[in-house]
Amino acid sequence: MTPLAPHLSDFLRAHLPRERGASQNTIASYAHCYRLLLTFAAERYKTRPSLIAIEDLDAGLICAFLDHLESERSNTARSRNARLAAIHSLFRFIEYRVPACLEQARRIHAIPMKRSAQPLVGYLTRPEMQALLAVPDPRTGAGLRDQAMLHLAFAAGLRVSELVGLRLEQFNDAAMPSLHVIGKGRRERILPLWQETARILRQWTAVRPKTGDPQLFLNAGGRAMTRSGFEYILRKHAAVAATVEPSIGGKRVTPHVLRHSCAMHTLQATGDVRKVSLWLGHASVQTTEMYLRADPTEKLEALTAMGPPTLKRGRFTVPDKLMAMLTETSNGRNNAE
To answer: Does 138 lie in the same domain as 258?
Structure first.
């Protein structure tokens, strides 16, 4: 039996950051997946996670783990596939270091991704966004911080990891205020900011604690804002906004919904999916095309351009008796022949 622990440690601490150039967010996501997997395996084998061997993680256990994610943890098919991708990546690393596990790795690689429906993206309308942005109290430091985070998440279409990872120097308060964003896959982009968003950011940086972490947004303890922290803040303010705009109550408002809202409003304003792709930092325009499916104005333009079919009013003609007799006789003769 081959211990898993040293190989897993090398994979996370050396292979991913040094050889693959993976970001810290990717490494954290993979580590969370392996923590779930080892907890599940330890409970099944009645042992400690540190004592689990590579051979214990066979294809049967991986399939049971994936079923557990969907049935017990209520993960979507997309989340399930992300966990499976992390497991595939680990065993591609292991199969070269432990050749004896090659057949086991091949069976795990054969576990397919699960196909899932692609629902329309959820987003907030302009009145709903205005109601949400108006909730934080700008007379307090926490209110200014929350208002700045909400404005920036929507106006710049930031992923939650991009938002909480922002540092002070990434906000350029020049004649044309802008934000230097380092996004997924280490792709960088410069985004100009609305004057209102820049003004709120200035107000926040003026009252922001001078000590603590270098990130732009800090929690009450002076540490960098976390993903879960921003998700909590967003849920709290969305509940209050729903009292002003009741339609918000029927929507699941998440940080990514703010990003979707930015994309939809930008698409409706410009009509150019390429500009939306550049603004959001997508690697491919194909990723951005999902917003076209959710935008009814695109279909309305196609419907207007095509136009409805025109039906002409018909006229009933009484059949000619002589022609009907000849047709009947001709058909009878042909049948006789």
So the answer is: yes
